[in-house]
Amino acid sequence: MQLTNLFRSIGLPQLSVRAGFGTSAATWVLLQQAFVRALVAAKFLLLGRILGPAAIGSIGVALLAIAIAESLSDTGLSQAIVQGRNDPSRAELGAVLTTLATRGLCISLCLLLLAPVMASAFHLGGALMLLQLAAVPPLMRGLASPAYFVTQRERRFAQVAGVEISVALVDCCSSIGMAVGGIGAYSALIGAIAGETLKTTLTWTAMTPRPQVRLSWSGIGHYLHFSRWIWASSVVSLFLNQFDKVIVARLLGPSELGAYQMSSRLAQLLLADAAIAMSQYLFPTFSANHRLDPAKAALLVKRYLALATVGLAAIVLLLRAFAGPFLSLLLGRSWLVAVPLFRIFVVNMAIGALIAVLVAYLRAVGDAKAATHGSLLQVIMLAVMVPIATRHYGVVGLAWSMTAGLGAAAALMLYRLVKRS
């Protein structure tokens, strides 16, 4: 009751904070976030304990290959469907399906062809099959029904939560079971394949409207003006989110990458992922409010940002103070070398969480290019700072350079938000 009164006192709408279970209630997003993040955390923490830094580094390279391929080919169609003023027709959904399925097939073929090159470049030795296995998840994602995007647009969060929790549970259980059974680094990708297969199946069997199944790319040109900025943002974000991992993996090998990536991933799970998950609620909610009353949407995002800033600051201070005991308890004393990096990453991920809220609003009001401009500013900051910081401070300097770039991007997006309102 006290929490409800607090939210009411600062003026947040009843729909966004009520503890109800209507199909569009924020409760479902919060439950999804809690269960999915807990399962993802359990997967990577247990895999870290079972497999060790070297195997985690090899898994990281495989996931890096998927991230690169998907970011370079991001169509932005899912966000365009959610943001669009009119509901998509079945024919338009059919064209979206054709586009995404073709994209998934192309990504898979590229990953298969480039697997030997990546195995050599990142010192993976006999892990060629691991990189080849990474070609399967993008293909399964491409075959999913675009009805999933309509479900998000219509704010059917209960259905989305049911699908995402089921997928995360299958992924987690499959991965851990395979690791315990001695499958090694392959266990993480096998679990991911099992989860994506289930998600694709559920989008076709449990979600409507079903798209027309026919080979067609026409009829979705009106989405391209918006989606091109999503693609540009994805390409820039690829550089921002993955280039540090490429440097570490290329120069130091999988063991060092494992320690670097685990500390980064743990900070992300604790901070940024919560905001990213919440953006599944915020993006369609901001979009719906903006269509009805732009001033209301602008006021709403400012209140969410204020709450997020206070909460994130408290969490960051706590995690930085107890970083050593925290990592030792979760992963074991062999991971204590990652403590200095973890203390930096919690700051980075807190800024990233605020950026997730800003991006959800800017895209909801049709200003998708603002997020791209922020990312480009971050690229410029990194281009200037990384060579100097890395030379004098090594990996720690690289991590602090990321902090400066994220701060600059957040400041620019906040300026665009204030200017619009």
What does this structure look like?
With 421 residues, the protein is mostly helical. The protein folds into 2 domains: 198 residues, no CATH class; 193 residues, no CATH class. Helix content is 82%, strand content 0%. The protein contains 17 helices and no strands. Helix 4 crosses helix 13 and helix 10 runs antiparallel to helix 11. The protein is globular, with a radius of gyration of 21 Å. The N terminus is likely disordered.
Write the layout of secondary structure elements.
Blueprint: H1 2-9, H2 14-17, H3 26-51, H4 53-72, H5 77-83, H6 90-121, H7 128-133, H8 136-142, H9 147-153, H10 157-180, H11 186-205, H12 224-252, H13 254-292, H14 294-321, H15 323-331, H16 339-364, H17 368-420
Helix pairs in contact: 3-10, 3-13, 4-6, 4-12, 4-13, 5-9, 6-8, 8-11, 10-11, 12-13, 12-17, 13-14, 13-16, 14-16, 16-17
Taken from the alpha-carbon principal axes, the silhouette is globular
Determine the N-to-C terminus distance. Answer: 32 Å
- What share of residues are in beta strands? under 5%
Task: Give the helix/strand class.
Answer: mainly alpha
CA radius of gyration is 21 Å
Number of helices: 17
Q: For this entry, what is the oligomeric state of its chains?
A: single chain
How many strand elements?
A: 0
Helix coverage percent of residues? over 70%
Low-confidence stretches: 1-19
Tell me, rounded to a whole number, the average pLDDT. 83
Q: What string, H for helix and E for strand, traces the elements in order?
A: HHHHHHHHHHHHHHHHH
Largest sheet: none
Count structural domains: 2
